[in-house]
Amino acid sequence: MTEPTGIVLAGGQSRRMGGGDKALADLGGQPMIAHVIARLGCARAISANGDPARFAPFRLPVLPDSVAGWQGPLAGVLAGMDWAAARGIARIVTAPADSPFFPRTLAARLLATPARVALACHDGRDHPAFAAWDTGLAEDLRAALGRGERRMIDWMQAQGALRVAVPGDDPFFNVNTPADLDRARLRLAGQSPGAPVL
Length: 198
What we know:
Layout: E1 6-9, E2 26-27, E3 30-31, H1 32-40, E4 43-47, E5 62-63, H2 73-85, E6 91-96, H3 106-111, E7 117-122, E8 125-134, H4 138-146, H5 152-158, E9 162-165, H6 178-188
Helix pairs in contact: 2-4
């Protein structure tokens, strides 16, 4: 398959939100993950643990971690790699379900790079959950998780990751707390600085 293949990373435990599923939190009358799916433009699956039925309205496959123990976003990336590789897909692009304001052009920009791993950065800060990944790296990633590696950026740098600079006013704002969700609602409504980057 040559068409862009996006995986939405929705496997977080939402501890700072007080539990629940922040991907499904209401944002402008839609679940937050709906904004992410729309902006990604090429979402083909959702990486998440737990009952997949909660994502049924999105009509996308739900991919649980293939490694035990809630090992973080790298485990979600591995699930996406495995799912895609089984379908002959050479590269995937990921975006987290709690960041609803990233540029709609981001997936195309990341996938246009020649690197086996390419990640977004903004104003000197890395945003490794927004990345393009060669699915041929799955076994290397599986082995790294088996060694206890968890930090996305460390493993990405070991693969020679390429950074893609993204302009804009806080395009990677993410929702971690109820206060963040309130700010996201204001931002979506145009009542605060930092309108969504188109």
